[in-house]
Design a protein that fits this description.
This protein has 460 residues and is an alpha/beta fold. It folds into two domains: 242 residues, 3-Layer(aba) Sandwich (Rossmann fold), CATH 3.40.50.2000; 209 residues, Rossmann fold (3-Layer(aba) Sandwich). The protein contains 16 helices and 16 strands. Helix 9 packs parallel to helix 12. It is globular. The chain starts with 9 loop residues before the first strand and ends with a helix. Bound molecules: GDP-alpha-D-glucose (GDG). GDP-alpha-D-glucose (GDG) binds next to helix 1, helix 12 and helix 13. It is an enzyme of class 2 (transferase).
Length: 460
C-alpha cells in the first residue's frame, strides 16, 4: 500500500464513469480505473445512458473499494455538451485541428448547463475533507461553478489531451471566459513539459496572470494556483502479468496459429482522427510497395473500436479506413495471405495484452496525443526474452519518455515505412536493449506513481 498524501476521501469526477466489469476502450477510463482500484474513493460522472431529463436521478453502486455515483443525460444535453462542444469543438482544437472545429453558441450553452448540473449534484455528495479531482476537457469550468456554490475543498484538474500553443488556442471563440476558469482549481495537471509551457504561456500572455517566485500562478483576479506536468502511465506490473497469462488463452493461440510464422504488426486505437490511422495505412501500403520481399512474411492487425459515432468526422474516418483497408488488401493480398486485418470491435484488456505480446511490432502513430497508453501497454506486455519493437509518433506525449522506441513523424509515409522495416529486421540484442530501457521507465513511472505524485502536489 502506498501512503495517502492526505486523510481525505478521494472524489474523482469525469464525464464518463467506467462502471465495474464494463470494458471501456478509452485512456481516461483505463487510467482512472487503475488509479482508484488501489486508493479507493468516489467516482462521479455520466452513466453513459440517456434519459428524459439530465441528472434527475442519482445512481449509486459500490464495488471493491470504489463508490460510483452517476447521472444520465438528456438527449439534448448529450448532443450539445458531449457531441457538440466537448467533442466537436474542444477536442479538435486541443488536437491542433482548428480546421475541424465546429463552434456553435448553443453547444457552448449546453456545455455550461451540464457543468452547472454536475456542480449541483456533486455539491450534495462531498464532505468537508474530500479531495476533488476533476478530469478532462468536458469539465473545465466545474471548479469555478463549485467555488460559486461555496465549495472550499482542494480541487485539482487533469487534462488528458495535449494543450496547443496560445497562438492556436485564441482561435477558440470565447476562449478567455472558458480557459480562465481553470484558475479556480488548486492544481492543473498536464502530461508533458510542452503542454505545461503552453498553459503557462496562455495564462501569462492572454489573461494577465503573473508567475510568483514560488512557481505558483496568480490569476488576473488574484487567485493562486499551480500547474505542473504529470505524465500518466499504466499498471506496468499488472499488465505484464496479464500478458504472460494471456498467452495460454484459446484466442491468443488461434491468432498465433493463423499467422503461420508471419511477423505481426499491431495497432490498437479508438477510431479517432487524432490517431493518424489513414496515414498509418498509407505508410504500410508504401512498405508493401517498396519491399516485395516482405509480402507473405508480415501481417498488420489494426484493432479500432468505434468511438463518438454521434460526431460526423468520426463516421467519415470510419468510411475512409474501410476503403483504405479494402484497397490495400485488394492490391496486395494473395489467396492465402491478407496483408491487413482491420477490426472495428472492442476486446477485453486481457486479450489485448496477449495480442500485443504476439506482435513483433507495435505501431502507434497519432498525429497528436496527450500521452497514448497503448504505446506503454505494448511495451509492458512484451516477452522479456524476445521483445517486440515500438514504432512511435514523436507527437504522442509518450515519446517524451519512451525515447528508445523508433520515433517517427506519422505524416511521412517513407519515414514510417523505414522504421517498420528496421523494426522487422532488428536483431534480438538491440530489441532487448531498447525494451529494457523503456520498461525501466514504465516500472519507475507507473499508474501508482502518477496518482501519488499528483495527489501529493494537490495536497501540498
Ligand atoms: C486519452 C488521451 C491519454 C483500446 N481498444 C480497446 C481498449 N483500448 C484501451 C487501450 C488503452 C485505452 O483504451 C486507449 O488509451 P490511449 O491513451 O491510447 O488513448 P485515448 O483513448 O485517446 O486516451 C490519451 C489518455 O486519455 C490517458 O490520459 O493517454 O492521449 O487521448 O488503455 O488499451 N480497451 C478495451 N478494448 C479495446 O478494444 N478493453
Amino acid at each position: 500500500m502506498t501512503p495517502r498524501p492526505s486523510g481525505g476521501r478521494l472524489v474523482v469526477v469525469s464525464n464518463r464513469v467506467a462502471l465495474p466489469r464494463q470494458s471501456a476502450p478509452g485512456g481516461l477510463a483505463s487510467a482512472l480505473q487503475a488509479a482508484l482500484r488501489e486508493r479507493g474513493g468516489l467516482w462521479f460522472g455520466w452513466s453513459g445512458k440517456l434519459a428524459a431529463e439530465t441528472g434527475a436521478e442519482l445512481h449509486r453502486l459500490h464495488d471493491a473499494k470504489i463508490d460510483y455515483a452517476t447521472i444520465d443525460l438528456s438527449r439534448a444535453d448529450h448532443d450539445s455538451f458531449y457531441a457538440g462542444f466537448a467533442n466537436g469543438t474542444l477536442w479538435p482544437m486541443l488536437h491542433y485541428r482548428p480546421d475541424l472545429v465546429n463552434y456553435q453558441r448553443d453547444h457552448l450553452h449546453g456545455y455550461l448547463r451540464v457543468n452547472e448540473l454536475f456542480a449541483d449534484r456533486l455539491r450534495q455528495l462531498i464532505a468537508r475533507d474530500d479531495i476533488i479531482w476533476v478530469h478532462d476537457y468536458h469539465l473545465i469550468p466545474l471548479a469555478a461553478m463549485l467555488r460559486r456554490r461555496g465549495v472550499k475543498n482542494r480541487i485539482g484538474f487533469f487534462l488528458h489531451t495535449p494543450l496547443p500553443a496560445a497562438g492556436l488556442l485564441i482561435a477558440l471563440p470565447n476562449h478567455r471566459e472558458l480557459l480562465e476558469t481553470l484558475a479556480s482549481y488548486d492544481l492543473i495537471g498536464v502530461h508533458t513539459a510542452r503542454d505545461l509551457r503552453a498553459l503557462e504561456d496562455y495564462f501569462l500572455h492572454e489573461t494577465g496572470a503573473t508567475m510568483r517566485r514560488d512557481g505558483r500562478l496568480r490569476s488576473a483576479n488574484g487567485r493562486l494556483f499551480r500547474a505542473a506536468a504529470f505524465p500518466i502511465s499504466i499498471d506496468t506490473a499488472g499488465l505484464a502479468g496479464m500478458a504472460r497469462t494471456a498467452m495460454s488463452n484459446k484466442e491468443i493461440g488461434q491468432l498465433r496459429d493463423s499467422l503461420e510464422g508471419r511477423l505481426l504488426i499491431i495497432g490498437v486505437d479508438r477510431l479517432d482522427y487524432s490517431k493518424g490511422l489513414p496515414q498509418r495505412f498509407q505508410a504500410y501500403a508504401r512498405l508493401l510497395e517498396r519491399a516485395p520481399e516482405l509480402h507473405r512474411r508480415i501481417t498488420f492487425l489494426q484493432i479500432a473500436p468505434p468511438s463518438r459515432g454521434a460526431v460526423l468526422e468520426y463516421r467519415e474516418i470510419r468510411r475512409e479506413l474501410e476503403r483504405s483497408a479494402g484497397h490495400i488488401n485488394g492490391k496486395y493480398a494473395a489467396p492465402d495471405w491478407a496483408p491487413v486485418r482491420y477490426i472495428n470491435k472492442s476486446f477485453p484488456h486481457r486479450l489485448l495484452t496477449g495480442y500485443y505480446r504476439t506482435a513483433r511490432v507495435g505501431l502507434v502513430t497519432p498525429l497528436r496525443d496527450g500521452m497514448n497508453l497503448v504505446a506503454k501497454e505494448y511495451v509492458a506486455s512484451q516477452d522479456p526474452d524476445d521483445p517486440g519493437v515500438l514504432v512511435l509518433s514523436r507527437f504522442a506525449g509518450a515519446a517524451q519518455e519512451l525515447t528508445d522506441a523508433l520515433l517517427v513523424n506519422p505524416a511521412d509515409a517513407e519515414e514510417v515505412a523505414d522504421a517498420l522495416e528496421r523494426a522487422i529486421n532488428m536483431p534480438l540484442a538491440e530489441r532487448r536493449e531498447r525494451w529494457n530501457a523503456m520498461m525501466a521507465v514504465l516500472q519507475k513511472n507507473d499508474i501508482t506513481a502518477w496518482r501519488v505524485a499528483y495527489l501529493q502536489a494537490l495536497c501540498r
